[in-house]
Fold these 2 entries.
Entry 1:
Amino acid sequence: MLSVDPVLRLYCALDATFPDSPSPCHPAYPGGTLAVALDAVPWSHTVEHRPALDQSAYSHVMDRVALPLVRVFRTLLDRYGLVAVDGALAVELSSDLALTGRVVLRDQAGVGRLSEASDDEKANQALVARGVRVLCELLSGLVRQVESARLSLPRSPGSTAALVEHVGPAELNTLFEGEFRFLRPETEKLLRGTDLGRHAHSVSTEQDAVLRQVLDRVTERAVARRRDPGLSPATVLIDLDFCAMVPHERVLAAAQQVAGVRAGAPNGIVELASPESLPILPCYAAAGWEHFLELTGLRRRYPEVDWAEVHLDFYYACFLPWERLRSDSLTPGLVRFVRAVERNGGAVVFNTARRDRTRAHTRHVLDSGGLLTQRVLTTPDSHQRSAPELKVENLGKLTDPYVVAVFDDLTDNREALAVEAPDAIQIAVELPGFTSDRARAERPRDGAAVVAGFEMLPRPVEPAGEPPVPALSHVRIVDRLPLADLSNHPIAAEHGVRLTEADALALIEQLMSVADREAEAAVAHAERNLHRQLRAVDDEAMRTVTRLHHMLTRRQFCRGPSSSYPLEIAVRDMLGSVSAGEPITMVLPGLPIKQCRNRLKAVGPLPDLAELGFLIRLRELWQAMRRIHEPGIRVHILTDGLHFQRNPPALVHAYSQHIRRYVHMIGMAEVIDVSDMDEVAARRLGPRILEQRDSIEAGYRDRLWDAFAGLDIATDPVGTVELIVARDPSRGWHRKSADDTLSLLDVRSVITSMLNMVATEAPAGVDRQQWSVAVLSDIYNVTDQGASSELLAGRRDVLRQTLDAAVHYVAAASADRALGYERMFSSRVRLTVNTPPPGRCGFAGLGGSELLPWQGTAAVDHHGMLATDFAISLTDRGFLPVFAPMLGARQPWFMVPTPVVHVRDRAHGAQLDSSFAAGIRLRRR
């Protein structure tokens, strides 16, 4: 289990196999390690000698002791049904008494297993409660030990009780809140009633599936709209009370307000006077009120009370005075779900029976959560009709709505809306801790799916008892990741593989060898496939071009539809060179810079194995093409790291220099030319072209800023982007043609693509990656009342940087088009790494990998296929870094799944499984 589970591999060891050192061996400490009881750790020494002195003592202890304790407890319990119950957990220290970041199970007999028998529920709860006590005692001991060592751990102002019921830093509560999210529902149930119960959180797979189904429907509609722009966008209707908003404070206040003396309750209704102690709270629908009385037993205890009258009083107390509406909170997951709907091409409309007079109170809650622009449909102040009628009437306020889903807590509302939107998915929202209009044992009358909120699972759920299989995310945009819910592993680098130079060169040789064989096989396959077609062609040059075109559009080389590059265009591009017996010229813009400036995509600035694989795929294409046309090809890679964006020149030059080094390493220096786009333009179009371009670009930039005058994207991000779309003059500047090498994008599209590329400036002592997560996980929320002023300022800074970068990019692309940068090369094959427009050939450098090499971090999946993924996702999903001399010890060359890394002995450290390493190759499609 410890060798294959990604979490236990990092944070846990056994004190059993080796009497002198815990096992598995820690790869970073060849001198061996020690298992030391918590109260015997020399805290002052270990902290003073921590490897990263810029990390605070508090963060060091949290990362190396508290976090491992919690993650091991959670993983054993949630994934394997195991609980450490006898306190036999120790801390692992290196031979020089440094904290390794692992905890040690000193006695496996002290680990209890949950029973799978249904009648053992109480025994399981007792076992879990005992394990929780052990964990809390260990953490309490940690706090006492650290405080006695006077390591000046920070406290929150006014904090007295912070570690459950024990004294300690308040930040440990934050640790619990973060680490006990997205448990299996059965685990969350077992933790109820323990000291960790209030931190336990789960989301059912059924809820996850329903919400993803809605997003899929939104995406399908967006695709249809691209084919037929006249179609209306997908609309998702969401109710407010007990649906999009949680009226917890209002319900508590209303319950207390109706708890006083009345007929049938001469001493008042005591239970309502202290509603926090009730097992469940009422919603204000009549059916939900009846279920509340039944579940709490209040009707039986107070049979003489007129409960219908109490309900009416409760109902009005929930709304009056109207100011109480401002105390509502947004339902967990709502903001992220709304953003996902909008990102997928749809719109969210809040459809409520609230009166018009409550609009300001309603907007206050939505705006405070960052939902500034979504439409809210309210009802007339003087209405006398039912809520279902009013909600249906609200649909008439929308222009030709295409409703794909309806979220509402009340069945009557859903049934009425289903008549008007028969194809919409009907979804019942039943907030945890509140009653609904159905008994929980019954299915909704209208057959609606049931969700408890809007949260989705951050990653696939593995079957209980099995370690997760680390897999790629297959996500193309960072903001499609649930950033705030991804796990960071600060000690993962210490468990990585460190290749020797010989190992790294052997891997490069292996990739080239496989690629060369694939090229030879591809040519043989092409000859068989083209046999009949070629018999009808008399001209030998045309026969050669036909073969070359077939090769370029094979799945291992072609990105996007092969129809974008038809044979007649290939004849135009290649026939002259073939007839003259010359190499075929190919032009490929790309390889600008590693996108590492916020540490979410890549953690270092240099090209890794993904870029090298990209170049080897070009070598494979060269090998195939020269078997058909002996002079082969000549590839001009136009790097544009300084052309479209204001990147630090030193980073761009270091990246490009390393790319050229890779080109030499794979023997392609005579075939692949890597040059800066502007340098090539000056050589081929004349030295004055750059001066002209600067002037024209500045003009375009001024026109854009003039159009956007008075707009501040950092004040109302979503609304400002919509205004930018309305004012954007760039759409009419140029007409697209089949000869375009540079696709002109509108400003909004560029903002979306660049939002996660700009640099984030973390405060002193804060990890850059974690700061980027905090900033970008809810980047449009610049009014978050729960966020620090520093965080909100960070979001505003990123938004302004992004708009500036987008304007710069659009102006640069427009200048290129105006000056005819296409004229740099006359007869050539136009390759593109993006989905190709007509007349260009898409090039799949890494087969079907969703990300381009420079947009992320190289990763080899469990099948041995080389791809690219985001660093933050790879770490979360259980990939370990592999370092090589060409990039040094700080930036991984690529990452691999945990199970293929082995630590057999102290002397050799972490090593790749030999059979896995022998199977690493480029993806074919």
Entry 2:
Amino acid sequence: MMVDLAAFGEENFSGKTWVNAACRARHADDDTTTADKYLSDLEMKLQLMAENLNSTLEEQSAGALLRVPRSLRDIGRLQDDAVSLRSTVSAICVNLKQTEGSSAESVAALARIDVVKQRMEGAYKTLQDAAGLAQLSANVEDVFASGDLPRVAETLAKMRRCLEVVGEVPEFATVKRQLVGLEDRLEGLVQPRLSDALSQRKVEAVQLLRDIFITIGRYSSLEQQYSRVRMKPLRRLWEEFEAGKGPNAIGKPSIGVTQGNERPLTGRGTPEDGSVISFLDWLPRFYDEVLLIFELEIKWCTVAFPEDYKTLIPRLMIENMSAISSSFIARIEATSDEISGGSKSFSGGNLMDRTAREASGMQKGETTRLGTLIALHNTTGSFSKNFQHLLSGVELAEIAQVVKAIYSPYAVYKERYGELERAQLLTELASLDLRGAVPRAVGSRGVELSETVWRMEASIPDVTVSLEAAVERCMSFTGGSEAEALIHTLDDVVVHYTATLHDILKSLRAICGVDRAHQDVSTEVSSTKRDGKIGPDSAIASANSTDIVPEEEEWSIVQGALQLLTVADNIGSRFSVFEASLRGTLGRLGHRLQIFSVLALMEEAGTIQRGLGGEDACKFLGLSLLDPAILRLVDAPEQSKRLANLLEQAKDPGFHALPHASQRVGNFMEAINELVYEVLISKVRSRLADVARMPVWNAEEEANVFALPSFSAYPLSYVTAIGEYLLTLPQQLEPLVAGGTGGPTVTENGVDNADEAQYFATEWMFKVAEGATALYLEQIRGIQVLSERGALQLAADIEYLCNVLSALSMATPLVLASFQACVAAPRDKLPELAKKDGGTQLDLATVRLVCKMRRVPLD
């Protein structure tokens, strides 16, 4: 039994509380120890502990009392020492003040003397430099005549130093102008020799001439001359394409360069079959030769320019790319026009397209302008990575400038990416078979409807694949820097696609007979009114006059319309998945841009030092700053801000990447549901076209000998036709239960989705049945006069419809049940029925309407 002494030291300690807690801490299952014994043991333990504490306190107190006198003696001694130290320090301070006062004047005098001495020495040196400058100016021509260029350079350097010392003295203004001319003259003498030495790779001569340029402060001229000389083989290599030669195969490929599936070359660099190689095939070989040239150049420069090659090599590549940039763009344009124009001949079907591509050596996706640009851009990207490996040890800032120069020919196309992507997507949409429905003769409209719906459904995955490919192209070509243009382009293209589907859907209305049915029914009703023919036969004939289509074709049209629901489900689900994938892509791009923002801030703050190598910087920052997309964003701050705002909005779960497209897809799905409902309800609408004007409702009873009922014991044909249609509707909705594709759908988790499809089909069945009931109620509300015979007939018709609704597991609406009860009741019992119910089980408005029809007065 342990006792925690810390609880006794608390300010709010309570003895009762502590004892109760100790009792609760005792094990409840410990039957061997009673509460009294437990408390006795606890009391004994506390008493022993108190005695131990008391003895310890007495011992500590005694020891403390013994140490107090010794401590008092130590304190007194320290006080005496402090007083003595204070007096000593005061005496020292007095001596320092006296010394400072006497030596301040001496120090000031010495300072004035030192200033005079320095000025005299400066004047002496200036006079010496002025005398030397005059002498150097007089003897400089003799030095030039000697032909010793290093000595000439040294002489000019001394003249420059003397001029800097003399300053702006009018007497030496002519010497200053003379010096500039002399330096230009020396540079003119050195440049031919430097060009010759660079061309013949003479290391010692190059180093000597380099020292001359550095001596006279013309290092920039050295860089220019080096680039001018070493660019000649690169320019010849580039111009060989125009001459139809292609790059000559020299040596083995550079390290890290992938040759790919290239056609073999002859000795002249052209294919063995003698055909002219395309720029798309020639560019990788050109890059291979450039890598080989630079690999050799770097090896030579490390010997000839051990301190300068890290700036000379990047400058050479930058100037080379600047020189060929316009020609590079012209070749890209020519290649794009050639390939995109040639691809038009591949439009004769998939097999012909594939065969023509294989014959031309082009890969899939390279037959468009944007595909050609991406293929060239990927080739350039491989070259850029390989070239960066050659620049190991070069400063990060220099490598970044080289990367920008390598990708510079593509800058104009990246700015136009949205336009190029839109043109390609619209071209791909135009290649799809999205023809509208063509009116056909009776018996063939179901086939036309099914084929049109199949074309719509088949286009959805193709369009989705095209949209996903557009996202990949944006990331591959622009690295995501043109994500804003991509979003706008995808939005516009999907809007264009849904507009096309809307037009096709409009053409299907005539095929389905929806628009025609409305027009025919209204025409027949007006003609019936005009002719005054109101009779049982004419009314039923008027109601059924639209049934000029065979019943088999009617059901085929219904099946074709139901396939539209599969189209709506596919476009909704696929578009949702694509938009979610697009948001994920934007999220990853947002993380990348966030790192870019950190890099930009670090660069502005000077954290990234110029001496930090490329590989080390990449490891330190966690991201390569040599990404062309990031370099492009660095140079376009406004575009970076807009892109950052877009990616920040994409973090919101409710963000719509394609807002207009989302709205248009939703509208299209609603239009499909509306058309399907119109098709499913059209037969009901045609059967009920003129039910309210049927003469059977106000027909009088006929006299008969046997007093038989004058009404029909069976419902009329119009309601039986509606009932049979509603009862066969579940069979027509079976494809929805099967997923609309001939088999059950499967969720993402692999679970059968048949229950959801069953619910969807049941929902449509209820919707059609409710619509039919509403149309029927609308017609019977329009009956003007209802005789006893008509009331009994209407009761039989309503009862049949209620039985149909019950068979479909639907509850009978209150209004319809009220109609049935009121028309089935005897005429004289209607007032009593209305009073007895009081509106609890019957609709009072319906009761009053039936009383009005049957000419029954109500109080």
